[in-house]
Amino acid sequence: MDMRVQAVIALMDSSFHEELSAEELAQAVNLSASYLAHLFKAETGVSLFQYLKSLRMRKAKELMETTFLSVKQIRNRVGVRDKCHFARDFKKTYGLTPAQYKEHHLRGLIPKAESSSK
């Protein structure tokens, strides 16, 4: 994988909770935003922001499984400000709303293999 794409992924992994613009990410690896977008998609198969959204959903799921934080606290920790977008994106990814997922996990209704495989 291109080292610049790897650097951007590392930056997103360490700063997923912050608002990251394509320009900031591109500047970090000395590329234009449009070239980075093209290169990132070619290397990973997804856009910068699809990757970031997926990363945030994985981190939110992890927090639901390992903490007793509220859904609102988790949403804020992963850098999603809009609760409707968060609920929609989480449900699209995991099949349940964040509140439903958290409740199912707490009750042991989500088998360990399923909760860690998505």
Provide a brief overview of the structure.
This protein has 118 residues and is mostly helical. It is 72% helix and 0% strand. It folds into two domains: 3-45; 54-117.
What does the largest sheet look like?
none
Based on Cα principal axes, name the global outline. Answer: elongated
Order of helices and strands: HHHHHHHH
Helix content: over 70%
Beta-strand residue percentage: under 5%
The domain count comes to 2
Number of helices: 8
Distance between the termini: 23 Å
- Structural class, by secondary structure, is mainly alpha
Tell me what the structure shows.
Helix 4 crosses helix 6 (83-94). It is built from eight helices and no strands. The chain has helices at 3-15, 22-28, 33-44, 48-66, 71-77, 83-94, 98-106, 112-117. The radius of gyration is 16 Å and the shape is elongated. The two termini are 23 Å apart. It is an all-alpha fold. The protein has two domains: 3-45; 54-117.
